[in-house]
Structure formats: C-alpha cells, structure tokens
Amino acid sequence: MRVLIKGGRVVDPSRNLDARLEVLIEDGRVLDLVPPGNEGGFGGEAELIQAEGLVVAPGLIDMHVHLREPGHEYKETIASGTAAAAAGGFTAVAAMPNTRPVNDNRSVTDFILAQAVKAGLARVYPVSAMTVGLAGEVLCEYGEQAEAGAVAVSDDGRPVSDAQTMRRVLEYARAFDLVAISHAEDPRLSAGGVMNEGLVSCRLGLAGLPAASEESGVFRDVMLAALTGARLHLAHISTAGAVEIVRRAKARGLRVTAETAPHYFTLTEEAVIGYRTEAKMNPPLRTQADVEAVRQGLADGTLDAVATDHAPQSSLEKEVEFDQAAFGIVGLETALPLTLALVRQKRLTLSQAVAALSTHPARILHLPGGSLAPGALADVTLIDLEQEWVVRAENFRSLSRNTPFEGFKVQGRAVMTLLAGRPIAL
C-alpha cells in the first residue's frame, strides 16, 4: 500500500526537521520525504492525503494510560480507550498494569495485546507490574513479561515503599533492559491526603498531600538509580522540588527520565474549590509556583515527556463526597491542545511539544515510532494548529467523563492519524 501525504508542514524532532515536505509511505513505512512537486510518479499510484495547512508529525505516543481492561470495563475498554487515543492524535499508548487481575503475568499481557489488535485503532504497549499483585513485595517474572511484549515495569498507583524491594526492582529491570516507571511517593507522609497540602486544603477542611511526599519519593528512587545504574523513569512529576531533583540527577549523568501531565502545567489546586471531584488526582494539582516550575522543566529538557495519566472513573466513583471520590481524570482527548497552549504562549517550540508527545516517549520505552525518517514505521499524526473547539465530555470517545476541563475553549486538534500508513478517521 502506498500513501502520499501532500502539502503539510513536517515537524520531526528526531531529525531536527521543520519544513514543508511531501511524505511518501510504502508498505507501512516512510519511504522518503521530498520537497513539494518532487514526488515524481509516486502520487499517481498512491492514496493521496491532502495536508495543506496541517502539521504532519510522528504519531503521538502516550506513555502512561490506564485502559481498565481487564476487570473494570464499565470505566473503559481497550477498544474505547484506543478510540479516545486516536481521537486525541495518539497512535500508541503504554497501558499501566493496575487492571483486575493485575498485569503481573504473561497471560494478562497476551490478553491486552490481543484486544488491541482486535480494536485496530492504536498500538498498545503493556507495562508489567513491578511486584505481584502490586503489593510491593514479590517481584514479577520480568523476563517472561518482556518476552510477551511488556515494555516497562511499574506499580503505578502504588509506590514501592520498601527501599530494598525497589533496589531489586531496578536491578532486575536492568537485567532485561526494561525501564522502571516509578510512582514516587512516601505513603506515610501522604496517608489520608486527598488534595495538595496548603492554604486551599486548610480553607476547604480537606486532608493534604504534601509536596514533600512526592519529593522524598523522587529523591529515594534517584539515589537507587545511581546505586544500580538502572534506567529510572519518574511518572507524573507535579512539584517544583521534584523538578529540581530530576534536573540535578540529569546533571550527574544518571539514567533518569521524567514525565509530567497537562493538568500539572495548566491547573492549580484552586480547581478543587467547590469540592470538584473531577479535579481530584494523585499527585494532586499543586500551586502556581509548581505549575511554573513544571513548565520550565519541559522547556529546558528536565522533563522529557508529556503523558496523560488517563485514568477513567465512572460517576459511581466521582459523584460522591470529595474524601470518598476516586483519584484520576481522563486526558487522551485533551492533551494535545493543552500542550499546544504552551507553544502559543512561547513557553515551548512546536518541535519541543512534538518531541515531548512523541519522540521522547519512543526513546524512553525503546518503541518504534517517534520519527518520520526513511524506513521508520509510518505512524503519523496530522494536526490542525488553528482549529478552536470547546471541551465537552459528552463528545468523548472514552467511556468516562471525569475531566476538569469541561467547557474549556482550546485550540489545536488532531484531524487524522495513520497507523503503519493506514488512515484512521477521527
């Protein structure tokens, strides 16, 4: 199958490329990128995709999602989650293991991969649990999981509280060249907390999650990465202190990478006022100073990736008292415009934004994709930078509606994805 993407602005951070080029695709891979009018006879034999006025980028990759299947299909399925991913411009997602049963063995990994192939809307890369049952005690069989297709290990949602166990996680992951994705948190400091600890939590009478809980967890895991030489990826960074710890770790040359999420550079703890459970997440929304630090961390490369931490919850978990409500928000369908807002604010270049949403996740997880170089997998996202729209959860492809961005006016939208050169209509 041949495809010609014509007339677009190609932005490929992997090649430091930002130019008007035609993209030639053959048999699911990028054949070549040529100046307009230089495609020769290729166009007459190919499916033509007009991209005039659009950005043509490597397919976006979300390295942190919760697809809920198996076990919680009333919140999300792999089919609905990948439909939401495609609608948001993502051609690939990494699925966290806190399913039911937990993805701590090959049978669950096999099931997830089979369901993703059946849906056919986006690639799904399973993440194995670090420990059996996410209990933080006995390590899973990483070799078996890697062989089955797991791309990383994580107990996301639950920190591995015992330092010796976390050391073994890193050593074992290194043996199989798997990155360990850490939910860095001191559970004793954060116990009982439901939002950021500070003046707002005091006014609302809600128990706080202190920034120190995240920062002490990040510091411990960075030190263990230094001890073991393993690859450590820090999930959902939300505080200024955590950003600074990662910055210093990178300055030391440690094998440490980190992500943040759009809500951490867009909203503050004040979004919780009114006891809005749709703004309840862990880590929680922080202060304006933390928001600024996260933005700066993305700008200077301290934070490598933007991931959504897409965490579908139904009304059963959210339409209750704030203390009782589940943590988490959906994010696959809003991440792109929220990240592009930083480009319009001149906090990031467009290339930096695409790198954080595509090239860097591919590098961290050792995935195909993240590039439009000749020979690369032809996973592509077409983006309209100018399209303005209003976030309405009722229009989401996700089965869940738990977003704090309802009614937000945003700009920028994916209008098509291609999976191995096959157009996926959004």
Overview of this protein structure:
The chain has 426 residues and is an alpha/beta fold. The chain has two domains: 2-56 and 377-425, Urease, subunit C, domain 1, CATH 2.30.40.10; 59-365, Alpha-Beta Barrel (TIM Barrel). The chain is 30% helix and 22% strand. It has helices at residues 78-87, 106-119, 142-148, 163-175, 187-190, 199-204, 211-228, 240-251, 288-299, 315-318, 335-344, 350-365; strands at 2-6, 9-12, 17-20, 22-26, 29-34, 47-50, 55-58, 60-65, 90-95, 123-126, 152-154, 179-182, 195-196, 208-209, 232-234, 256-260, 305-306, 380-390, 409-419, 422-425. Strands 3-2-7-18-19-20 form a six-stranded mixed β-sheet, covered by helices on one side. A five-stranded parallel β-sheet has the order 11-12-15-16-17. α1 crosses α2 (106-119) and α8 (240-251) packs parallel to α9 (288-299). The longest helix has 18 residues, at 211-228. The radius of gyration is 21 Å and the shape is globular. The chain starts with a strand and ends with a strand.
Mean pLDDT: 97
Fourth-tier CATH superfamily name of the largest domain: Metal-dependent hydrolases
Shape category: globular
DSSP strand tally = 20
How large a portion of the residues is in β-strands, by DSSP E? 15-25%
Domain count: 2
CATH topology of the largest domain: TIM Barrel
End-to-end separation in angstroms reads 21 Å
- Provide the spatial order of strands within the biggest beta sheet: 3-2-7-18-19-20
Q: Any idea of the CATH class of the largest domain?
A: Alpha Beta
Main sheet overview: 6 strands, mixed
Q: What's the tally of helices?
A: 12
Which CATH architecture of the largest domain? Alpha-Beta Barrel
Classify the secondary structure makeup into a structural class.
Answer: alpha/beta
Rg result: 21 Å
- Weakly predicted, low-confidence segments: none
